[in-house]
Write a structure and sequence with these properties.
The structure is a homotetramer. By secondary structure, chain A is an alpha/beta fold. Chain A is built from ten helices and 17 strands. In chain A, a hairpin with a 2-residue loop joins strand 7 (about 140-145) and strand 8. Chains A and B meet through helix 3, strand 4, strand 5, strand 7 and helix 9 of A and helix 3, strand 4, strand 5, strand 7 and helix 9 of B. Strand 7 (about 140-145) of chain A pairs antiparallel with strand 4 of chain B.
């Protein structure tokens, strides 16, 4: 895919954007901002306070109202559950120097005790558990350095809320529970590919088309899952899985945040195209979603069973571990229908 | 509470047991077994194969049918969610030599990259994460040594399924998702205490009475939560929290397993009375529930908000981390109503 | 001990200082600096480049010449060895949120293999291993924030050499091996106490007197051990051990750095008095020794057997683990005589 | 190298054995045992009590007498030190599922405190630290399963001394300090190879020849280092480093234990040939040395600088970390001459 083609699709997506009620102005401002000043991207001049208030720490999770929960529960028609979380195991794909180790101390951990000879096992885990395997990115995960300060969601300064033993603000324990409507957009199926190639930039146009095919409309507080097929590489070809990935471009991310989703998930490790549209800009969708819009990510999902089920709208439940001051959480999110 | 009194209540519970459809015979066989041969307790002569088949690894989670899920979803009337999981933090109560450490490597973990100056944070956790804080006990957690063999659920021998880097059978990844009906039995409120004292043995009679007050009947695949008030000590008086606890006696555990629950939760670290009825027998309820009956435990829950809400029947959701070969899982289970 | 008394002893130490070839000027400059401007303390206006060159990363370990090693070896007369390192175990004293966990995965870790049925055990350790138990403080451990920059030995900026996965400069792997002369100064015995109280500020005068009693002179590249008796509390009364400690004051530290020692050790967790002379100034001896002078620390030593042996001059050997980019190292340093 | 050739060299080594004062009888008994019954190998019918007494936990470290220490110190003629320990870093070669992670929590770990604005860094390590990188194998590391019991040095049963949180016997804290004579046998140079190939079985003959070239005799309590050149692969070709290695065969191991060494070190991860002489017998030298003879191993050494120095006899110092109940220790052993 050439970058020229990417641009063209982006422009088309702007048009579609209006149809769907997304302001062209904001998109074009962002696009023109892109050409003028790299440092304005993707966060722009002023990315805070957030729309949820200057003191807010929950971001788009504020959209998870009781009404959303109630309507999500009503989507359960058959009582079937699909696990979207992957198995955590040593050897799973992992970038850089993160690690994951699980051992059984002792085996059994506790020797026979009492006249009933009870024995027990524990497991000892070491790892960046909020950022390995299936993972939920919280608002303390991604920021931007501006004039020597690391700024996160709502302009919080890491120099103020950072703490060696857990963030004092924006910790994942603030996110609360996601019990809301989920929608699957199967871009992989749309493209008729077995899997989209690394670096493939998903456009708003493609998301719109997928959405039209589901006959659904994204509503505030929904969570949207993007299937790329890239997840088929998991534990099959870990190097290829990690070397790059298909995913959202900035315009597609904007499409989703303009629709006021609470969370975006994918069968990839970063949700967004890697390499992205502009090789000088790294993980811009992360900054756009998390830092600017307070929209959460769920990564390294297994979306195959869900895709195969034909279900495109479902009750989605994910309850992050309340790890005090953590930037993310492991998990096993579910689709129930 | 004297042991004489405990016995008396136990006998009463046997009568109640019949009313509720529980066979007196099995209970009395067990009680007589208790007096004759300590080694028959609580597992008895032959605790396997399980009722779910000799090869089963899911235990009582087999009761979590689509019908249960569907009916649980229908319990959501207001869309309100209560988190039952506690915050994980260093310094929380923990027995023996388990530990929990959470740090932010680097702060930020990733230095500014790209023209967009992105920074990111991870968290590094070390600990027995399936057995610290709010925890789910899986079927690989508890067993019994018999003739030099450590036997677990369905008679699985640790010498065969044990593995240093994760159990080859009975791992928590087999449990699946709990999306089912939850019932709160508030024994603390029943007794009119602020909290039940350590060593207080909850009887079937008390459970029955609580149940009658809710006008509910326990059905197969339900999960039942026992509130003792002991959880009020969490992070307030950790020593008292850990020194002992009120909880189920064996007869009460049998009452619940006879009702074919899938999981039992409590606001304590062991569900059962510590010290228990018989000081020579350690954690018999664990063996009874997990090893013999395949019924799961959820420990160190926060049940205060749920109790205060007045809700006694709710949609319960818990999706254990799919930690390969782990004996348990951390989590943030929820009650939705 | 009143601060007035401390001052008087300090003044006496200045006189002694001259006798021992230490410039009064520098000390008095430092003392006057103290009264004028707290922020000049203990590092002063200009604490770098170090005397070992602006690019140096080894600090006082540069004094560990072959000649020192050769002469140290010649101090071995009886072939006797005393271990100064403590046993590492869970439950040992530890400040803040550091931790130490050691488990045996599997037990055995490796199941019987081969026709020879070999089994093996490993140990899994998690902890701040360079900063728990007996520990060696390297030059990446202590710094000072000046105008928003964290400056370490030789003025290295943490913003430049810091790295999430190991410091890019000043890592403990640069320190090399300490095989040099050791001298024990038994201040505890001098004072005739069983142990010096927490907050006791050791003065240059006391060090001089101890030294005179040994009839030794400190030479460049020596390592000096200060016995306070505080170590008797280790694993006996961990709370008292950690709540405070006797140790060097800044003047005594200067006495040692002026004598060009390579390393200072003690039977305490910080070498220096806690609380110190000036309660607003925290761990000034750490800054003085490590950040300014490149002189290393060895903490949480067991000096009892050495003290009881009567040996005051010995061959000292310590070889830090070459942990890439680490700030310290665990160890079991030895005195051989 | 054919197995026929190996056998021939072995026979030659038996003759050499007598010359060097090693009983042919014991070797031939062992060799004949080899042909008759695989299960007698390498430990034989009765491998305990050890020669150091039935209660001994130190094994060959008992040979480290003050006289040995004194004579070792006298080997220091130039005061030069060579570090034999490798740098510990993520990504170093490691078998199976062991791991090593080092991070700097916080960076700085401790924020500016006091009027002196002190900051500090720690390092957090997770890993099987006694069994990754340069490592010392203690007597709790290797055993044999006989009739369902895991037997270790001196016949200690793991079922009795094993403990989840550290072995109750044979822990590395019992080993004490190695300050003794070291001898380098450069088999790689003898063979004129850049490095010996994986699976190359070093024979007693080769050790004898190397020894003759040094004009030294191995004496009780010496430590002997075997250079194979395999260490050149470290961090250059980690896969090749780990896939196999040249090293001692059983006869060569016996040659060394008959000479009553205290410890054997090598520039490989297992000291012994992998694959070995008999592919059905795994790591027999480990059992022979550690389990039967109480002779320690030091693995993953860097012997290149030592070899290049021309020094073949030196003062060797290694002081294991006193990790309570650990099976091994990391370290930075040194050769001083």
């Amino acid at each position: 895919m050439t970058s020229g083609k990417v641009t063209r699709i982006n422009l088309r997506s702007l048009v579609l954007g209006t149809v769907l009620g997304v302001s062209i102005m904001s998109v074009s401002a962002w696009v023109s901002g892109q050409s003028k000043s790299a440092d304005k991207l993707p966060l722009g001049d002023k990315f805070y306070p957030s729309e949820f208030g200057a003191d807010d720490q929950r971001g788009a999770a504020n959209r998870l109202t009781p009404e959303k929960t109630l309507r999500a529960a009503q989507l359960v028609k058959q009582g079937r559950t699909i696990q979207l979380g992957r198995v955590y195991e040593q050897g799973m794909p992992m970038p850089g120097k993160r690690h994951f180790s699980l051992t059984i101390p002792g085996l059994p951990t506790g020797s026979p005790s009492g006249s009933n000879n009870i024995v027990h096992n524990d497991e000892l885990v070491s790892g960046e558990i909020g950022q390995v395997g299936t993972q939920f990115d919280g608002l303390g995960h991604i920021g931007v350095r501006v004039n020597g300060e690391d700024l996160f969601y709502n302009g919080n300064k890491l120099s103020e809320f950072g703490d060696t033993y857990g963030l004092k603000k924006l910790g994942v324990e603030n996110a609360g529970v996601f019990f809301t409507r989920g929608i699957l957009l199967d871009v992989c199926a749309l493209r008729g590919n077995d899997q989209l190639p690394a670096g493939y930039v998903i456009t708003p146009d493609e998301l719109s088309t997928c959405l039209e095919m589901t006959k659904l409309k994204i509503e505030p507080g929904d969570v949207v899952f993007i299937r790329t097929g890239h997840g088929k590489l998991w534990m099959k070809d870990n190097k290829a899985y990690g070397d790059g990935e298909p995913g959202l471009g900035l315009a597609a991310a904007k499409f989703l945040t303009d629709h006021k989703v609470a969370l975006i998930g994918a069968d990839t490790w970063a949700i967004e195209a890697v390499p992205g549209e502009n090789k000088d800009v790294l993980y811009p969708v992360h900054q756009w979603d998390l830092t600017r819009n307070g929209v959460y990510h769920l990564e390294n999902l297994d979306l195959e069973e869900l895709a195969a089920s034909g279900v495109r709208e479902f009750c989605f439940v994910f309850s992050p571990l309340r790890l005090k001051g953590a930037t993310g959480s492991p998990g096993n999110p579910i689709a129930v229908y």
